[in-house]
Write a sequence for this structure.
């Protein structure tokens, strides 16, 4: 019976991990060298001054993606696989950037980290973000631990929400509906009144969904797993003087719905409620040659799962209540040291806590904290750019560690950039891995050493561009779950190592009315466990992906876009409920074609439609779970003034 309890508890944990995990239109993600970004360096710099692989999903692209979820939009970015993005609504997603495991990509909101302290791997559920509340997204590929700390191993995704822009208040509302009885409504106001800025957005989504688990009996009697979301975001800014300003932001999201019991298994009574709260306060002092910013944020997640007695769950009531809280305080100093040098330095303190209670085990209230100091020096002379940076971290549980970044780039004729990076990164063990019934208080952080090199070439400025890069990522002390023959039947340990490598390349063409991009990405890796056994399997991560995006402006009022993506074979892990043994299975490759139509009916009214999986491709993202067939979303957006 204890072993059955372990299996059920592990199943609940896997569902909780999936839920807390972790573009139909042409996603012509931008790499123009004159674009200004902040994520790669923690300060505003042009891409021509940064020798890193940075992708921008612009505000215009977000506006043309209102029929999609955030995971669906990000799934069109080269090098990103958002596993589960096309599963039933509400089922968790796992982001794999450049083949790294979930939890190794840091998620930011307006520059603040939003980890989930109650998750097994600290990963955050991006289903919590309605697309209508996002202004644009910046994606840094490659190690970002020097400037961002733990979890920024494979890269950083910075979701930048809508802020006040022009003077005067403007309002808009949006309505949409589509397949699986899905309906979305949102409304917002945005603008400045003198020195005060406000951006308020409210959204509401409901979907009857479809059976999340695969019914192998063919009887079709599995329940539809529904999804309901209520969300509000508020961004405020106040200019106190010509050189001092304050900002504040708040986001509240509540997701509710039903889940299956697991792979291939329905459960009519398994329900969940997930609540997300994110709040931040910031102050900025503009200096003569730089600025000083102080930010404080609070990120809280509450996940509640309940399962009423039924034949599925052994006629017993089960529950799981998890809460995670992260408080982060940071001061960042940017300063120009003259014509050739810039300095970015900072101090950061992060406090994490969780309390978890379930039918089978409990994690009493536990916490950890990590304090960091970091600095990066940037050199520029118009042709060559160099970054040298380091970060010292002290964790109250595992002790101290250090990361570094050395990046060099050379730009020729203001259109061809060569770059290379050597860096290190780390991922601290989660509170679950440290203190759960399967925890190990002596875990060390995973540490990574990375190499990257490539080029960005604007063949014809703002018309035709080509980029390519290669990377290698070597990780030691990988935390893995070791099975045990007796209770608690498993423990988290260090000891294995992982070696990943790959390449990415894309080409983009932009004309007056026509734009197109094409990309290819390849990643391979090997994992060596503590006993020396080597495996070449990266679970749920394809070795090969490729895609093409086309957007055509037929006239000033009507636009049409197509998105194609090929996802190669992946390996997933199955579980035998009788013998309790795990096994590997290969999931076949698949092709998805989507379309987006948008019409500017009047100056204030926009009508849009997303047609997804046009060819009705049959495929599997997770073993034992269904994916969406041919489906659509259509709606309108009206600007009130």
């Amino acid at each position: 019976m204890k072993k059955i309890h372990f299996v059920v508890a592990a199943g609940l944990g896997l569902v909780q991990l999936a839920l807390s995990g972790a573009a139909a239109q042409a996603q012509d993600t931008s790499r123009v060298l004159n674009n200004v970004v902040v994520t790669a360096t923690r300060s505003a710099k042009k891409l021509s001054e940064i020798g890193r692989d940075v992708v921008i999903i612009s505000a215009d692209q977000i506006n043309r993606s209102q029929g999609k979820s955030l995971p669906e939009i990000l799934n069109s970015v080269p090098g990103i696989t958002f596993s589960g993005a096309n599963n039933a609504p509400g089922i968790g997603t796992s982001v794999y950037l450049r083949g790294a495991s979930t939890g190794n990509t840091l998620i930011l909101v307006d520059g603040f980290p939003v980890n989930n302290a109650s998750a097994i791997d600290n990963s955050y559920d991006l289903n919590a973000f309605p697309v209508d509340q996002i202004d644009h997204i910046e994606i840094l590929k490659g190690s970002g631990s020097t400037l961002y700390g733990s979890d920024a191993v494979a890269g950083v995704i910075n979701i930048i929400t809508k802020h006040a822009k022009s003077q005067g208040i403007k309002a808009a509302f949006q309505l949409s509906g589509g397949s699986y009885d899905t309906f979305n409504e949102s409304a917002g106001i945005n603008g400045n009144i003198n020195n005060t800025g406000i951006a308020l957005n409210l959204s509401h989504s409901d979907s009857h969904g479809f059976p999340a688990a695969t019914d192998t009996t063919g009887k079709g009697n599995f329940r539809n797993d529904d999804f309901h979301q209520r969300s509000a975001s508020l961004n405020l800014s106040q200019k106190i003087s010509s050189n001092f300003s304050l900002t504040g932001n708040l986001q509240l999201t509540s997701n509710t719905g039903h889940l299956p019991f697991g792979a291939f298994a329905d459960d009519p009574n398994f329900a969940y409620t997930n609540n997300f709260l994110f709040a931040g306060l910031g102050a900025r002092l503009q200096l003569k040659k730089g600025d000083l910013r102080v930010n404080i944020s609070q990120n809280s997640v509450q996940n509640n799962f309940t399962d009423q007695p039924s034949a599925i769950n052994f006629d017993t009531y089960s529950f799981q209540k998890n809460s995670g809280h992260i408080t982060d305080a940071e001061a960042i100093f940017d300063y120009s040291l003259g014509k050739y040098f810039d300095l970015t330095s900072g101090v950061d303190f992060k406090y994490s806590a969780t309390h978890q209670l379930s039918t089978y085990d409990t994690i009493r209230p536990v916490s950890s904290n990590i304090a960091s100091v970091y600095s990066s020096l940037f050199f520029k002379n118009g042709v060559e750019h160099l970054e040298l940076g380091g970060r010292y971290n002290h964790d109250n549980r595992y002790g101290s560690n250090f990361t570094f970044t050395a990046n060099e780039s050379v730009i020729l004729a203001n259109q061809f950039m060569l770059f290379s990076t050597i860096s290190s990164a780390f991922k601290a063990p989660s509170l679950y891995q440290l203190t759960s019934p399967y925890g190990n208080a002596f875990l060390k952080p995973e540490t990574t050493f990375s190499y990257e090199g490539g080029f960005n070439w604007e063949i014809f400025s703002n018309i035709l561009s080509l980029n390519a890069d290669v990377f290698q990522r070597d990780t030691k002390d990988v935390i893995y779950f070791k099975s045990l023959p007796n209770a608690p039947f498993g423990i988290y340990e260090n000891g294995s190592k992982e070696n990943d490598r790959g390449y990415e390349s894309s080409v983009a063409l932009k004309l007056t009315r026509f734009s197109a991009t094409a990309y290819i990405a390849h990643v391979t890796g090997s994992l060596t466990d503590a006993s020396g056994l080597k495996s070449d399997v990266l679970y749920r991560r394809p070795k090969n992906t490729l895609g093409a995006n086309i957007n055509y402006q037929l006239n000033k009022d009507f636009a049409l876009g197509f998105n194609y993506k090929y996802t190669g074979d992946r390996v997933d892990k199955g579980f035998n409920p009788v013998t309790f043994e795990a096994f590997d299975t290969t999931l076949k490759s698949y092709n998805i074609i989507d379309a987006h139509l948008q019409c500017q009916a009047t100056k204030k009214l926009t009508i849009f439609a997303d047609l997804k999986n046009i060819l009705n491709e049959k495929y599997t993202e997770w073993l034992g779970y269904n994916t969406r067939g041919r489906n659509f979303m259509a709606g309108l957006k009206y600007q009130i003034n």
About this structure: The chain has five helices and 34 strands. The two ends are 64 Å apart (CA to CA).
